[in-house]
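Q: Joint fold for the lines below.
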Amino acid sequence: MPQAPKLAPTLGELLQERGVSRRAFLKYASYLSAVMALPAGSASALAEGLANARRQSVIWLSFQECTGCTESLTRSFSPTLESLIFDLISLDYHHTLQAASGEAAEKAREAAMAENKGKYVVVVDGAVPTKDGGLYSTIAGVSNLDMLKATAKDAMAVIAVGTCAAFGGIPKARPNPTGAAAIDEIITDKPIINIPGCPPIPEAMAGVVSYLVSFVKLPELDHLRRPKAFFGETIHDRCYRRPFYERGLFAEGFDDAGARQGWCLYKVGCKGPVTYNACATLKWNGGVSFPIQSGHGCLGCSEPDFWDQGGFYRPLSTNLRDMGPALAGAALAGAALGAGAAWASRRHQESYQREQNPNEGDKK
Amino acid sequence: MTAKTTASGVPYDAQGDMADKDRRDAAMKGFVREFGAVAAAHLEACVRCGMCAEACHFYVATGEPAYTPINKLQPFEQAYHRHAGPFAPIYRLFGVVPSVTLEKLEEWERLIFDACTLCGRCTLACPMGIDIAELIKKARHGMFKAGLIPDRLQLMDRTARAWGSPATPADDFADIVREVGEEHGVDIKVDRERADYLVTVAPAELTEHTKALADAAKIFNKAGLDWTYHSEGFEASNIGYLNGDTELQEKMTRKIIDCAVKIGAHTLVLPECGHAYGAARWEAARWYNDKLPVRVIHMTEFLQEVVASGKIKVKPVGQTASFHDPCQLVRRGGVMNAPRDVMAALGLEMRELENNRALTWCCGGGGGVVSNTRADPIRYKAFELKKREVEAAGADRFVTACGQCRITLDLGAKHTKWDRKIENLLELVADNLAD
Amino acid sequence: MTLLEFARGPALQVAMIIFVLGATWRFFGALLLPWRLAPAEPRKGALSPIAAAFKGVVVKMWPHKPFQKAGMFTFVNGYILHFGLAIVVFLFAPHILFIKGLTGLSWPALPNNLVYTVGVVTMASLVAGLVHRLRSPVLRLISRFDDYLSWLLTLLPVLTGLLAAAHLGARYETLLAVHILSICTFLIWFPFGKLMHAFMFVFSRAMTGVRMGQRGAEL
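A: Joint structure:
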């Protein structure tokens, strides 16, 4: 039997090497398929696919960002399977995580691109500045804009991790001095998955990568290219405080009796009703808690332009703009126009009076 | 003065030789003059709920939706929005509200004059408090200016302008009352230079019901009051008030009030006439710096006064009676208890009609309708409402306190061959004076 | 800009400005016309003008007996509609927050589920009102475009509000945006149609109150 060419080890083999039992792995696959609401029987298919997948080449580009997304993934409460999976994929380029630096790092990226042409996955965190030729953020003298375009050119798919990459996020917030743009505003000819959140939930990132690696296709996405499995329902719909909303029991501040009772945070600005994310079900830090459970309203961080919704503490039902002066002006203008109209009418009346009844002594 | 019909077949009358445009403009200008804050608030408040329909005797009697009171105001309201309302300049500029056409005015003549007695029952029904009757009266001002009123009313207008009364020339007045005095053996005072009370009369009392002149005299004499009729101010009915002829209304008003002032009267007594009360008691002050120089009371109020003060005594009649509340006296005038007090003094046991006092059904002939023969068919239908209530009450006697109501009810009774006598309160008192 | 941002931002702003401008314009344009409440010596013992005005406003809240039979539906349905709208508009927590954001005033809310129920009743009342209007020859005759448009623009916020509450038909933020936009159309139309009666009815009733009050007549 001729020796087979040395293939890269599969994920299954690598996990086994690290002491992850097949049982634990299957458990993870079932958990993931449950979380992603995949059809029955998908768990074993997912496990199979994952186990047999070769190390996937991934190029991780970090642009206008804060590294929070990477932190979210790597600084999980405990070493989790998803962090292991990220360890085990072939992360050929990642500023924060890779050992190489400088030209060596850029060489690694170019090498990975050449070796895995058409098969590698590009993960992006951070928005891309587009103003003035994109000069506001460069890596090794290359603008983010150019690097993204070049890297994405031969990619299989692009995953925009975090709200900045998915929707522009904080860099794009008004007044957006750098002309920051979301990835899908720049790359229009590749499959793109958005996993927004500031940061995104680790399970969402791992789940999507696992799905992509094992099924080699995109999960079902919503109109904002978010995987429906994690972004299909609003925080509000899954919030354990929802009954208080329906009963009209609200915290009016962060230190009042209502807040201590754990009542609904709608009045203190919770954006849960219009925020699609899995925080209320998956929670954070290994399922310990999520912002609302900790007593703070949802900021809506997985939604486009969440920074510009009139303020985190401004209730959802309020108008976004300060209308006081405009309305006062409108009232004054209305009164003036009304008085003018009445004055014109009075003048007509007087002239008709003179015309029709010149002698009538009608007292006004 | 020829009878005409609009293209849609609605009969109308038109007076004068105005060009179409002038006629329309005259109406618009006449309307516009009426749009004060009160009319505006009323017209701005309507929500088209239709409650007024069920209040109107003409709608209820015929089931004809066009007789819905607020519908009668349509051209008036349209004129408001186009020519006087807050957005009028914009509405005109962009043609949002079109001009009222002459055709529309001609069509609405029937609704504004024939199908409204100004009785004000709709005003009571309106949840928004819109005084529809008052607005229709205002709309008549513009219609009059445009020469778009029923010919019969125009005829009376001209007569009243010429004679000072639609019934008789002022020159004949003194002779008529003297004759009536002789006929009934009553000492009638007329044209005295000075008197405390100036007593005025209504047209019917100068023609069909002359006995009323003697009845009033009898009571004044009996009460020992210083009173007189006067040729210079005898006619209290005010055809200008009904026709929308404000000039005539002022003239008629001034005649009686100035005459009262001239002879030093402290009280002007109005005859048993409804709209005379509206014109002289409630509207006259606009020509006198908001305060009349003389007290104005209705004959019914006078009867209550002299009965209550004991100046006259009446014999008990001892029968049951129903009272027809004249709209202008009761609903629009506020004289609610006076007629009932007098009837109680006469020992009449009241059998109230189902709709009484402020909620009374109109006789169907007010607002000039009884004089406007074109309206006869619907007037007779409206009469049925009253007739049914009177029959249901089943009283021995049927009394009212308005000459116009009495004529209308008499005509209705005659038309339907209804064997009921309609009596006036004044006559009832005069016939039952105790010695 | 998302639809919701557009609704909560420029759309609402423009609608509110048009509402305030138009309503004050119409209000002053009507009430600054000459005041000619018929001058006359009031009847002895008649109500003072202020008392009569007040009485006029109050008495008209319920029909006189002869008008009750024919007007019962109009009155009862009218009350259901107006109370329903008042409850839904002013006692729903998110709405109170909106008003608070605008004026600084706030008050306790009703439980949402109760408000939803009232919303359904209000809708039913609106539909019943339209059916009544279409079936009555009188109402068909006197109704205009204004009546039907005002009806529609009143119905839409209630309907979209209920859909948003029930998450029916679209995503919540879309429903919320559509709900706010429907309120914008309501606000924009308000000063120009019969919705304005909300401000004018007080004056209309009061003026009739004063006129009839000085005469000692019923209102």
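Q: Anything notable?
A: Chain B has three domains: 2-149, 163-306, 313-431. Chain B touches chain A through 21 residues (CB under 8 Å).
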